[in-house]
Give the backbone structure.
Amino acid sequence: MRRLSLLGIRLAALFPLLLAGCSLIGPDFDTPESRLGSGWMDQKDPRLKNGETGGYRDWWKAFKDPVLDRLINTAYAQNLSLRAAGIRVLAGRAQLGVAIGDFYPQSQSVEGLIWDIQLPKSGLSERLPGTNRPDSGNNVNSLWLDRLGPTVSWEVDLWGKFRRAIESADASMLAAVADYDSLLVSLTGDVATYYIKIRTLERRLDIARTNVDAQRGNLKIAESKFLGGSSSRRDVEQAKTVLGGTQATIPKLDAQLRISKNALCVLLGIPPQDIEKLLGSGSETSKIPVPPVQVAVGVPLDLLRRRPDIRQAEYTAQAQSAQIGVTKANLYPALSISGSFAFVSSNAQGHSLSDMFAWGNNFHRFGPAIQWNILNYGQITNQVRYADAQFQALVVQYQNQVLKAQQEVEDGLIFFLKTQDAAEYLAQSTAAAKRSLELATIQYREGMADFTTVLTAEQSLLSQQDTFASTLGDVAIGLVTVYRGMGGGWQIREGHDFIPADIREAMDQRTGWGDLLKPLTVPSGPAQGTVRAPEW
């Protein structure tokens, strides 16, 4: 027993040296190669700037609309989908703690045993626990044995299985953070988009109602001329036809406006309701947001750093890459160190059970054990291949995500630029249609033109005004699409917690989260490979 103790002490002393020389089985992760353009297709357009201005953090302020600023802040504070994503970040931190725990002794227990050994009075050999016992009575004596002490088992991380598991859990947690950021990009973009739609619909409703008033005036003129005998009944009916068609557009626009407001309410984390107070009123606050003349777009390479969905795809691939090492380590022998220490006592030969904690009654054992799944080599090899195939699929998904990100930016840019061009033409055509209607009305009153000319001019003006308002809204939405494609907006969460204080307090009171509820600092760039500097 003394020799075993000395051997255990020596092995224990070798643990740090043994662990320091342990290698990491499996591939070290590197950011996958991806195809990136050197610049945007429309980068020579004077409305685009390649320089970085730092305006991506709160890009909506470029519209200089205080109502939009307030809506974005409200959505960030109250959106329920964003809160759920923040809770998933906490779940990732907890999973990382589980993985770190496996790096230390995996099995610990305290055993307390009481043995009742029945011995014949005749002095026959001791019967072990669990064997058939003779009938109790005067023919046997009872011998009580007690044992109390801890038992510990530790699988040494020779091949980096547990370190790879920590790397995988850490990357998964960072992927959860990137998912939160990606949701925040979508949230800010959706709030701005619905707000612009609301303002555009309000403008289109104003146009429709203004035209209804004008068409009612023309109907009265037609009726007066008909009663005076200077025009036919057809002019009156045609005026009613045009008026009814214009009036019919108002309920449809009202329905679209209500639907857009309901969607905005959900984004703000509130039930669908009247939000006129949030939206404000007056000519200044009800205008369609106007984008700036020039927009900073940077270069495609910036997407790898800024787009959180690309980071999420990369961290997910890193997590799976580490799982290859976890699985591959099962091909090699596993060294475990186990030991136990206990106090033993009995009532034999005048001893007492109360002597258990006397130092001379201690029992201890310590030693290594090796497990090697040689007969499962083929099965484990295929498990490694399966993990590798999953990793390769995630690499391709990452590369595809990079391509999609560039497509989204290019789509947003061309839409933004071309709708601006269309808006310029529509501004001219709308002004011309307005002048045409004014002239047609004067000529009709003076008898120089028939009423069909007036009706045609009315319909043309309404169409041009409505299309112009819709296009102005599309220009603003196009800029939102550009910023969304660039991955802007998530930066506003920097320096803030992922979940609000009331949820943190509820979770802490329910299960005691401790330091895991403290603010988390995470890298914002591409994955760094292996295990990053820990914040455990």
